[in-house]
Amino acid sequence: MQSTTAKPVTPALASTIAPTQAMLRNPFIRLDAKDNVVVARLEVPAGTAAAAEGTTTLQKVPAGHKMATRFIAKGEPVLKYATVIGFAAEDVEPGTWMHSHNIAFGDLVKDYRHAQDYVPTDLLPPDQRAQFMGIVRTDGRVATRNYVGVFIVSHSGATVARHIAKHFDAEVLAAYPHVDGVVPYIHEQGSGMEKSGEPMDMLRRTLGGYIRHPNTAGALVIALGEEHNELGAFLAHQRLEPGPRLRTLVIQEVGGTRKAIAAGIALVEAMLPLADTARRRSVSAEHIMVGMQCGGSDGFSGLSANPALGAAMEILIRHGGTAILSETSEIYGVEHTLTARARTPAIGQKLVDRIDWWLDYNKGRDTQINGQVSPGNNAGGLANVLEKSLGGAKKGGNAPLMEVYEYAEPVTQHGLVFMDTPGYDPVSATGQIAGGANLICFTTGRGSCFGSVPAPTIKLASNSPMYARMAGDMDINCGPVIDGEASIAEMGQRIFEQVLRHASGEATKSEALGVGLNEFVPWPLGVAD
């Protein structure tokens, strides 16, 4: 792309974004030769010549927002990454700022091309795969962390669980240096809901997935004694057998809250020596399973952090690992890019079936799948859910789609897979971890303070200014892609290498801050009684 002359940036703006010389020479990013819009690297004043596009800005274009590069007639598709993100709501002149005020959300005709573009991954031989320091469990599964969990079958046990976990502070756990913590998993379900059916199955599947998770070294399961999610029925449903690493406690049977807390502390104390026997050793990266999330997205997320994460996941997949793409309502409009890469037509159809469920469920509701994104996403440059979906799907790179899972189902297929979840980050990540994710990679453009246990969250910033503002929360800066200082491939390699370090035990920013202890949120589908 030819250099573009930009007007001088005002001192106030310069102090906010500290533009690089590359950004000043080339303030717009062209993503595809077929596109009729480009994206501003920084705030571009009105009247700025965009020589490479043969036009001049007619209005100020905020950072992360789009500018029309040619005349777009009313009703004509607006193209980004050569993909439709909406339709011109009016005749648009070259140089016009393009956003939700002049991009209409409309119906798309999609060619799903089930499995027609499937290309198997060229896997590296086992002896050439990257290694990390993991914890190998007796059944061969590999952990990235070593926690003891205090679980409740219903919200009635929340206070008891919190008090038990609170007892095991840093001073107490100093005697168990190989245990990362004792964590309470609190939720608001288990009573006030139907006793059988999909909602209860989903809750039990989520709890069971966390209890069986390789990062869970031991689990205490607490019940009041009369909840809808009855303890015995839950254990039978999930085929869980009490033993040295799985203990149960019924509050009504031991004599109430105070006695239950004391009994629970004793049960956890008995598990800690066994949990502390865990040691790390070198294992293949094929044992890494990453749940991918994005939240607080901006116009740069789909240009830097998401595709860079996609590049990193392609590397991980070549090394035999697994990447879980989710947030079903936020891939709407671009799901055909995934179905075309599906391993089989049946797998592609599974994804379409979940999209259809979401469309039916959200009829007449004020939700993102019906077009409008959150205020933060909109301010960051995303005009509608189609544009957000396009950027979000980039987290999966170009890997083939190997399988589609229901929420919190155990993930057994390696490679890129999809799990049906809402777009709400805590609920979505909870499902991924229940499915077996032992790391979460979370991209953000506006900034997020999300964290998770027992699988830690790695946060990726889409732009350098936000990374600088929130350096205490961000693990990786993908802003150099926007700044013109790194390619997607280079950033993907950096991310992959940092994933290996965090999988080996290096604490993420969220872990260091203690963020994640309150982000266990099973999907509250059907809570109605």
Automatic annotation (TrEMBL):
SMART domains: SAF (SM00858). Residues 35-104 form the SAF domain. One of its GO terms (biological process) is D-galacturonate catabolic process. Keywords: Hydrolase, Lyase. The keyword Hydrolase applies. Pfam families: GD_AH_C, GD_AH_second, SAF. GO terms for molecular function: hydrolase activity; lyase activity. It comes from the Bacteria. Belongs to the UxaA family. This is Altronate hydrolase. It comes from Pseudorhodoferax soli.
